[in-house]
């Protein structure tokens, strides 16, 4: 039986809930969503999700408790739910940037099993890249959480000390790739396409590039070599982008996001 309580009905919490239901992992009535302002969950309530503004009451019947609040809100939330958490029957999954398993146990007790997960917003359409880690969860619970997130995308298990890096590459990374697609569409407008056509073309080209790598298991450079002929237009464009710092800017952005993600909880 999968009874899931998601504390924090923001973007990631709602994306996870919708994704799990869309992919038939569970039913809407199996998921409880919490938020301080219940009016913001009216749409979810209409779809059959249970909603609550009482975190403590919401976790009593849950098998899986998902923490999806802002890092600054977590300490108060953990203090609220601590009396209701049962280590024997519950697993806690945190999707909060910069919060360690030890941080969660510090408030809930050392005998509670905690798994960190870092999905991204593509979880709502079953296309998340989720990284998971734990320092004390059993293999059985790790498998359970892996299966849960595999229904809404791909999962990689990593060491916990890499979770802030995963935040930058996968969670923040959604925004980075979206910005790259936006830039490509703007370039399309500059060379003569209407905005809606340019965006459609950029989106499908980006999707094709990603699927090409996923399905052929090849390296980006080997695919790039196939479309760069001597003195051609592709290599000219690539080199112009590199001269202006394209790869360097992308790498620096990921590194800065990782640095920022590591300090969110304590800040």
UniProtKB/TrEMBL annotation:
NCBIfam families: proC. It is an enzyme of class 1 (oxidoreductase). GO terms for cellular component: cytoplasm. It is found in: Cytoplasm. GO terms for biological process: L-proline biosynthetic process. NADP(+) binds at residues 68-71. Residues 160-261 form the Pyrroline-5-carboxylate reductase dimerisation domain. Belongs to the pyrroline-5-carboxylate reductase family. Keywords: Amino-acid biosynthesis, Cytoplasm, NADP, Oxidoreductase, Proline biosynthesis. The keyword Amino-acid biosynthesis applies. Signal peptide: none annotated. NADPH binds at residue 55. It catalyses: L-proline + NAD(+) = (S)-1-pyrroline-5-carboxylate + NADH + 2 H(+); L-proline + NADP(+) = (S)-1-pyrroline-5-carboxylate + NADPH + 2 H(+). SUPFAM superfamilies: 6-phosphogluconate dehydrogenase C-terminal domain-like (SSF48179), NAD(P)-binding Rossmann-fold domains (SSF51735). This is Pyrroline-5-carboxylate reductase. The keyword NADP applies. Pathway: Amino-acid biosynthesis; L-proline biosynthesis; L-proline from L-glutamate 5-semialdehyde: step 1/1. GO terms for molecular function: pyrroline-5-carboxylate reductase activity. It comes from the Bacteria. Residues 3-97 form the Pyrroline-5-carboxylate reductase catalytic N-terminal domain. It comes from Parapedobacter indicus. Catalyzes the reduction of 1-pyrroline-5-carboxylate (PCA) to L-proline. Its EC number is 1.5.1.2. Its main location: cytoplasm.
């Amino acid at each position: 039986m999968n009874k899931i309580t998601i504390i924090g009905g923001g973007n990631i919490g709602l994306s996870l809930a919708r994704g799990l239901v869309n992919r038939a992992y569970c039913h809407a009535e199996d998921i409880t969503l919490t938020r301080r302002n219940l009016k913001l969950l009216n749409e979810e309530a209409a779809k059959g999700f249970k909603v609550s503004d009482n975190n403590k009451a919401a976790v009593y019947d849950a098998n899986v408790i998902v923490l999806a609040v802002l890092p600054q809100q977590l300490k108060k939330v953990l203090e609220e739910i601590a009396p209701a958490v049962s280590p024997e029957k519950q697993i806690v999954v945190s999707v909060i940037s910069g919060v360690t398993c030890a941080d969660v146990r510090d408030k809930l007790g050392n005998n509670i099993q905690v798994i960190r997960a870092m999905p991204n917003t593509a979880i709502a359409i079953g296309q998340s890249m989720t990284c998971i880690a734990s320092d004390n969860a059993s293999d059985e619970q790790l498998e359970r959480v892996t299966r849960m997130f595999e229904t809404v995308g791909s999962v990689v298990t990593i060491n916990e000390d890499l979770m802030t890096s995963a935040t930058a590459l996968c969670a923040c990374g959604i925004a980075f790739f979206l910005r790259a697609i936006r830039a490509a569409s703007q370039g399309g407008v500059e060379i003569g396409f209407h905005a809606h056509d340019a965006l459609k073309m950029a989106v499908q080209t980006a999707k094709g590039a990603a699927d090409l790598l996923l399905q052929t298991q090849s390296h980006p450079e080997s695919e790039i070599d196939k479309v760069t002929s001597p003195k051609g237009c592709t290599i000219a464009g690539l080199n112009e982008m590199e001269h202006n710092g394209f790869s360097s800017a992308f790498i620096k952005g990921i590194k800065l996001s990782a640095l920022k993600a590591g300090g969110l909880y304590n800040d």
